[in-house]
Write a structure and sequence with these properties.
By secondary structure, the protein is mainly α. The chain has one domain (22-256). Helix content is 71%, strand content 2%. It contains 16 helices and 2 strands. It has helices at 2-6, 10-18, 23-38, 43-65, 74-90, 95-113, 122-142, 144-147, 175-196, 199-209, 211-216, 221-247, 257-270, 277-295, 300-314, 316-320; strands at residues 161-163, 166-168. It has a two-stranded antiparallel ribbon with strand order 1-2. α4 (43-65) crosses α14 (277-295) and α5 (74-90) crosses α12 (221-247).
Length: 330
Amino acid sequence: MSRAADSPSPAARSLAGYARWQRWELALFAALPLAWLLLPAQALLVNEIAIVALFALSLDLILGYAGIVSLGHAAFFGFGAYTAALFAKSVFPDPLVGLAVAVVASALLGALTSVLILRGTDLTRLMVTLGVASILYELANRLDWLTGGADGLQGVVMGPLVTPFGRFEFDLSGRVACAYSLTVLALSLLLARRLVHSPFGVSLQALRDNRLRAESIGLSVRLRVVAVYTIAAAIAGAAGALLAQTSGFASLDVFDFHRSAEVLLVLVIGGSGYLYGGVFGAIVFKLLHDLISAWTPQYWNFWLGLFLVVLVLVGRDRFVRPWTWFRRGA
């Protein structure tokens, strides 16, 4: 009797198997420090990829796992950027403290605005989230005495990054900024992985697949929506804070619609609902952006759009495995 009582249930065994680490996951985490070591000349580009990947990870939590569509996710990204920049300029220039303040502030904003998406259809949520980002954009534009308005918040000087390994000054080559962003990305991925492989994460997927059925079995849908929206807002705020801290600048661009659209494109490229789509999508998106804009600066949007159309028509799996195009029934 005691052995039977102590043995895990089938559901627990299934969840444990679902959460088991895969080899390619370990390879991905090992590639993060290797990118810093092996690509010193591309540190600034790697830093940008890490920030975009972190931003995409935050959107994937609400879109890919909870099924909450958003066209205004830049609201939290921009709020985190301005919070970190203002904190460094007016209060304390320590980057880690500023990052923590930006994460907490963005999480509070996410918790407050989450009540706006509890009701309505996907179209309603699209308009509401877009409206929140537009309001914050206009506030940042009007409060020019605080935010710098259209000129942006300039003169943001960050202090050294104090770690157990020593003090590191942000340099023009971007090596310290790259290591900083990659570390935050790795920690956020670990946190998100723990979240989505927990019973809470599984319940989010149940909510995404069928909200009415999730309610009928006793799941508190409202509390889960508020919780995941708050967590996603915090991670998006961290991405915005990293951008402001590593660039020393925050402008209205961080609230712009194209930020929300770009992160959606990143998830379209990398895939949503399996946690690492934002990372792979950010790599492809930024590399395409840099390569195409260097080749044809005026028409890079056309070629990027063409790539996305082909990707959607062909399918992501067949696009990365072209030998399957000619299989019978493919």
